Amino acid sequence: MTIISISLNEEILKELDKLQGSMGFTGRSEIIRAGIRTFVQEEKQKRELKGKYNAVLIVVHADEFDDQVAGIKHDYEDLIKTHLHNKLDGERCMEMFFLDGDSKKIQAITKGFLTDKKMDTVKLVAL
Q1: Most Cβ neighbours (<10 Å): which of 6, 31, 59, 100?
Q2: What does the alpha-carbon distance between residue 116 and residue 68 come to, in Å, rounded to a whole number?
Q3: pTM for the model
Q4: Rounded-to-integer distance, Cα 40 and Cα 75, Å
Q5: Domain 51-126 belongs to what topology?
């Protein structure tokens, strides 16, 4: 087993400790390993998509970053069948994109949002 070191801000650390207690993990390392396993499994599943798919892409971001969302959205208009925009509160928005098309393009739009550090949450559900 290899030991790695990570830095976490106080907000993430508090949330991690809450999850640890509520989910019954015995320590921080255990919950971090579980999170990494889940992330690796989800990413592997996305990479293995082949051919034509339907999917739902959920993106949460601060209201001020609507322009970044519009830029990525513009590049994939042929893939997006429906787009819903919803204000979660005064400062955050949730976008739901219903996608229909080639798995490589679905992976590309997802990566576009995932790699944009201004996005808070990006979740792809392949159907």
Answers
A1: 59
A2: 8
A3: 0.72
A4: 27
A5: Alpha-Beta Plaits (3.30.70)
